[in-house]
Fold these 2 entries.
Entry 1:
Amino acid sequence: MADNKNIEKEPLFSKKNIGLVMDPLTDSNPITVQVLGICSALAITAELKASVIMALSVMFVLAAGNVVISLLRNVIPSSIRIIAQLVVVAALVIIVDLTLKAYVPDLAKKLSVFVGLIITNCIIMGRFEAFALGNGPWKSFLDGIGNAAGYGLILVIVGFFRELLGSGKLFGFQIFGDPVEKTGLYALGYENNGFMLLAPMALITLGLIIGFQRSRNKSLIETN
Amino acid sequence: MGLKQNLHNLKEKYRGTKFEQGFNALHTFLYLPNITTHSGAHVRDAADLKRVMNTVIMAMVPVLIFGMFNAGYQHNLAINGVAEFLTMDNFVVGLKKILPLLVVSYGVGLGIEFIFATVKKHEVEEGYLVTGMLVPLIVPIDLPLWMLAVAVAFGVIIAKELFGGTGMNVLNPALTIRAFLFFNWAAWMSGDKVWVHGAVDGITKMNGVDAISGETILGTLAANRPVTYSLQDMFFGFIPGSVGETSTFLILLGGAFLIFTGIGSARIMISSIVGAIVMGIIFNSLAGTLMPALGMGEAVSGVIGTGSKFFGLMSFPFWQHLMVGGLAFGIVYMATDPVSASQTNRGKIIYGFLIGFLSILIRVFNPAYPEGVMMAILLMNVFAPTIDHYVVQANVKRRMKRLKTQTA
């Protein structure tokens, strides 16, 4: 305990702490680099709005969950830690689920089971295990925000392309004109790419993003 | 100093520049490359990849020309009610629609190949020569050109270049292009309005003609309506359909040519036909129409009654299944693609059988996609390496066993 006094107190936004938020956006992105949380990235990205809501929900659950687990990290016996973590996530997910149902019922219907399935999102358990159990609450909070933002960033990029090319909309607004009235681009014979709304194209879009990122940063390429 | 020498001089000039790959690709269309391998033992043969591809294209030319006649014939038939087949008018109508498809397909596809070759500094690969010819033959005639261009770009980049180019693709690029078109713009790739030139205009009422409609035989069957075309029409191809797939007769000739030249695998073609027949017989027996299909006896009431939505396709005589839709075209020109098919002889038989078998299965049970051969081939493309693996392993096992008995 005596050593503690000698260690200088780390400032709230030290370089290391900022790194906790910024790294998951790019070089340790949970989706493109760690390849976690793919299922929901494929399932709910047909619309940008759903992507954003999903990203925010995961951010809330992950940040809050990380803080709670971090505070409890010295109390939870390691043999039952998974159960304890699940209880925390479940409680937070139910809060999110009920909030969405209360305030945005239409969107909650579209997200359907996927909000509930945040509970099984590999990113969340992964961060609890890998980070929150070994770090203080402030750092865990930043880590949660960072990883959820990295997850959300990919969701939004995929959602952007899928909604724009698949239904010609962004956040529900017609970008290319009206497909029924044949205005704007549709007057020239353009038609929406229905394939973008199906899961295979989500996977291909995601694959292209991963490929692009690895072509920019060769150190991410795995060798086998 | 003839043309040949001039070209070789030009080639030296372009060596090491950005245009080297592009120039070499054009050069080898006319002359064999003057670069030869110096070491090792090699079989000397005039058949390089480009000649092999050209042979396949030759096998498709009759189908293409027939497709042009048929496009005009179906168009005039739909407008006037009667039409002659072999008229110049028919040919011109077809040519006007099909030539742009061909030009776009080759232009976009080869353009992408050239760009990739230049950037990655390898030789331009010949694989697209066949794909570019196949693509216009397997799409509906009125398909908008920009859709074709997008699909070709997708197919060449995603299905081929990303896997490493010619010879490395898991999926058949031409079918990937068709599948992309199908799932992207299903309204342009299925239904009863796209198979005859002018029918789509009828929908949008651009020129006031809205009586034109041409349903494919499979579409009619899927809707449980009787087929109005004669057997002769089906076999020789005077029916609506994708540009090049209607004439089973010419496709058979093309297939015979491919087998004769040793390019297409007879194993795959024959086992595919057997697979389709087996599945057809199973369905015919379920629908109780096996006896009349064989030409002996009356139909009995089968497990599948006339009220079932599958009855139309299930009761269709199994041997007629071979003549309608793209099955024959797919089996002859696309299942035999040496890159995406199985490599081992026994594997080829299994691969082909499952293609035929699954084609008819998908045809019958998925009326939303009345033709199943596209899905069947793509699916089996994915499984081809697995089939090969088990064939090779079985062989290894058998020989190990033999070795043991000999030494024991």
Note: DSSP finds 19 helices and no strands in chain B.
Entry 2:
Amino acid sequence: MSKPATPAVATTAPESRPAPFRRLLKRIVGNSGTLVGGGLLLLIVLAALLGPVFYPQDPFAQDVANRIAEPFWNGGPAIHPLGTDTLGRDYLARLLYGGRISLLIGVLAVSMAAAIGVTLGLVAGYFGGRVDLVVRFLITTRLAMPVVLVALSVVATVGNSLTIVILVLGFLIWDRFAVVARTTAMQVRGIDYVKAARAVGSSHARIIFKEILPNISNGLIVVATVELANAILLEAALSFLGLGVQPPLPSWGLMIAEAKDYLFFSPWLITLPGIALVLLVLAINLLGDGVRDITAPSGTR
Amino acid sequence: MGRFLTRQLLLAIVVAVNVSLIGFAMLRLSGDLAQRIVGPEATAEQVETVRKSYGLDKPLVVQYVDWARDALHGDFGRSFFYNAQVSDLIAERLPVTMTLGLIGLALALLFAIPLGILAAVYAGSWLDRLALTGAVLGQAMPSFWIGLLLILLFGLQLGWLPVSGADDWQGYVMPSIVLGLYAAPALMRLTRSGMIDVLRSDYIRTARAKGLLPAEVVLKHGLRNALIPVVSIAAVQLGLLMGGSVVVESVFSIHGLGYLAWESISRADFPVVQSIVLTLAIMYVGLVFLSDVLNALLDPRLR
Amino acid sequence: MATVLDIRDLAVDIPVEAGTLHAVRGISFAIEKGRTFCIVGESGCGKSMTSLAIMDLLPKGAVRRASALSLNGRSLADLDNRAMADIRGAEMAMIFQEPMTSLNPSFTIGDQLTESLRRHRGTSRREAEARAVSILRMIGITAPESRMSQYPHQLSGGLRQRIMIAMAMMCDPSLIIADEPTTALDVTIQAQILRLLKSLQSEFGTALLLITHDLGIVSRMADDVAVMYAGEIVESGPVEQIFRDPQHPYTRGLIACLPNRERRQVGGRLASIPGTVPSLVGSFTGCAFRERCELAIEACAEPVTLRSLVPGHQVRCIRAGAPIEETAA
């Protein structure tokens, strides 16, 4: 290293800054994406969880007299504000219930993927060497498998249930967790306090879970939002292709598939569940982007 | 660079073998193949005959080696449903899917790169915000849904484009747009963030200090470096587009690889499914390898 | 002698999260043809912002103001971007601190060397390459022809900085601004680069504005020197005068830290002066150094102007000229 020959100058003192929490709060408020995304997500989650409690219609009951009833803006019956589907089931009730399904599958699949991916990534990043090689190979193998096709084949082979769909998705979207956990673990491994922990004889497991894991949580939250959105879209695609959620359960993807043939005369049957999907995924993505911006060191975006 | 690429190539091969193993295992785990080939009404004797003639009575390892040897020679077995070699079926369908993927990727790049550059140069402006909003919206829209909306608008209401099939170029328009919309947001954001990083770099300041005009600074000194990650991701995106072709092809009833896979899955035609998965996996690792090569070519430090 | 660069009341404001950072707070100086003017100060004192302001290369959002800013008698203050770009690289060129990152990794040395000549003079590629090779040879680079087709990563830091210097010389500018040109280099290379700058300057009569934190470099290179502190010039004058008779307590502190001198301090660091540089965010009046100054009195909180003690030697301190005991030696 080259240091100036004449040490002439002291370093500048850091300027005074507002307290970290206040700065964080200010950043959250200043980040419109986070606010919009978070608010929207909260609304959707509340609607999905509480909607079926307050909204009286049964998502499975068939109102045979009112098949494909128009939504209210087309002058449909007041009892079905968003109309009914091809079997006369209340569309709003099904949309609300479908939200539950989307969130349930998404959250469980992502939790599972996170458990798999983070474990693999941490182990690889922490131990390096052969372990790392094996994990990298697993990641590459996983990436090489076309997700939708593999999911479809597995579901078709093993049979079809919510549990299977969740398991399959969980096994297919862990890669990003692994990549982020691995990279961060590699960086953190070299930091002094981790070295210090090693020096005082902490066990590997203790270091990984007590010292490294908390440090990578920011990055993992961002990945979790990305994968949550991903899982919800995948579930919709699988259900749309007939190999995800099975009737009569309402899933937004399945609802779109069921209404495909009525596209021309009853387009709202397609647009409504689609809009619900877009809003949910949008909310999650906005929130994820916001978290990334907020937790990023200032100045970097 | 040679060593790096050799290692990547080896990794690609190992991965391809691994995927073939997984596919093979999936096929064998799916049930009694002999029974499935002859059909449910066959006698036990017939099943045994088939089991022998297909080599299904041998140990699994032997079966895999036999299968792999045949596969290396381009023989992926016969379809349970079609009276045809799997390899012929794939060879017939692959070009359709590849064309779709390439057009989709081209559309995405054509749209994403200029927009990404503009968004980076005018970072924070209304244009940037519009581009980012568009990207986040685009990423939130499921392809099959956009496909249906396009069909509704351009196929059914306006009647400009065919609602299904890809018999002529018009049939490719909507599916390519859907694929392009799928790939564009990530590419746009990558171009933008890469460009923003590059524009902050010291050599951009050097270029400006030389008196180069803004267009030269951005397009010559900026773009080359900003595009390095974009190019490699684009190759990977093509792999993803082809892997995801099953959705788009089923929406538009296009008889490509994805559609064949979907049909075969519903018909339990597992040799076809297994081979398509393997084909797509090999294409994916091939494209990743290609992206490594492209990276090495674009970045003199890797040469 | 002809004045090459003339700056009066240059100020740079940078919007930051907490308000406005007044990075440069009204500085004035002039450089004559063939002279070397050094600006010395610690990091954050505004010396780099000054150089970027002259080149009109300030970061996005930063605002530059000046009552006069002229190069060879021509005002740069209100030139549009295009006209400014015509001057950059042609009449004034800049050498940056980080040779490792200041060259574009994706283009050859030859390409990057010839760019400015082709841009400003419309020279053909072949002619520009010929000039580049001759400049490389002149600055003592061996096998210049083969260097032309190499990429930056294939060269050492010292070599890259020479390339940067050659790049600055391509259009024979009347002013070269060098911002800490040797800070990132090994000590042995530093000397070579400084010698090279000096010899080029005497050969072509180029004016040199050298930004540094290193008084050793100032004493070797400068004709005139300005000491910057907290965005202001606190003392300026001919280099011998400043070194012989520093008036501002800050300058005295800096010089006291120089090694191999009578007044050498053991472990000589300015950190021995207590206190910190005031925040330049928001408004600020009075002497910026008073918090750290042993001689500070109440009147130091009043605005201080630069005043001449002897012709050519200016200082921004009300206590200057008053009898001062040696600072803790």
Note: Residues 94-258 of chain B form a domain with the MetI-like fold fold (CATH 1.10.3720.10).
